[in-house]
């Protein structure tokens, strides 16, 4: 049986909770904020990229990450299905869903690019420092050749290399395997910090409307942005911050420090506010069962989702 090459960074078992029929083959309304269009599709057709989890390491199964994620998601699917019935966010259910949040917080094409930028910047700074002086460059060439037998200058003079680097007519790429390694470390660290928070399970009740999600479904914000330290981003381990994560169209989680765990029912204004929070956190796409969800537009007015593109 051939391996699957279409790998999801947005889990299908998660997205199906926002479909019309709560199943992987049920319809999902997609609002694309960058392309200004709305369409319906199934979870399988969004949140995935060819070979996103595939690794090329000698002696290692190329699908090892994809297989591990699939095994994890099968457990998460059960937890997500049972939680609306029990409303008991504890034990293994809590462990699995917090690990899912940790994964979705860092696993995306956009985050991979973000994680790569510091490494690329360091590489450029290192090259510039190496080429500050001809003597330093030549000593590095000599050392590498003595250690490995390889002439990394490729016959180029110091002047030619310096002009090449200063011209910046080149690209530096971080190997996908290293990006995946950074993701795995980040997922573990974020999940540990999430366990330190207290969690409120929020139900959308009555006429409040439904929760929505996006292609960046983990929102981390300051409680009071106006009082936050200047030029400092919120962190998963920082006080005075809130983690918001929509679980399904009827349930959401709010994680804070120094609060009691609780179950609460949201009214229409609160659902609209939380929907606006996750829309603001999106990279490009909003996912909902239908486009009649509530959100807060500029000026504080509660509007329906079918007006979102007009007001964006």
What does this structure look like?
The chain is an alpha+beta fold and 312 residues long. The protein folds into two domains: 6-107 and 196-311, no CATH class; 108-195, no CATH class. The protein is built from nine helices and 13 strands. The protein has helices spanning 12-15, 64-86, 91-106, 109-130, 134-148, 158-167, 176-194, 268-280, 308-311; strands spanning 6-8, 28-32, 37-41, 48-50, 198-204, 213-214, 219-222, 241-246, 251-256, 262-266, 285-288, 294-296, 302-304. The strands form four sheets. The chain has a five-stranded mixed beta sheet with strand order 7-8-9-5-10. It has a four-stranded antiparallel beta sheet with strand order 3-2-11-6, covered by helices on one side. Helix 2 (64-86) crosses helix 3 and helix 3 crosses helix 7 (176-194). The longest helix has 23 residues, at 64-86. The radius of gyration is 23 Å and the shape is elongated. The chain starts with 5 loop residues before the first strand and ends with a helix. The mean pLDDT is 92.
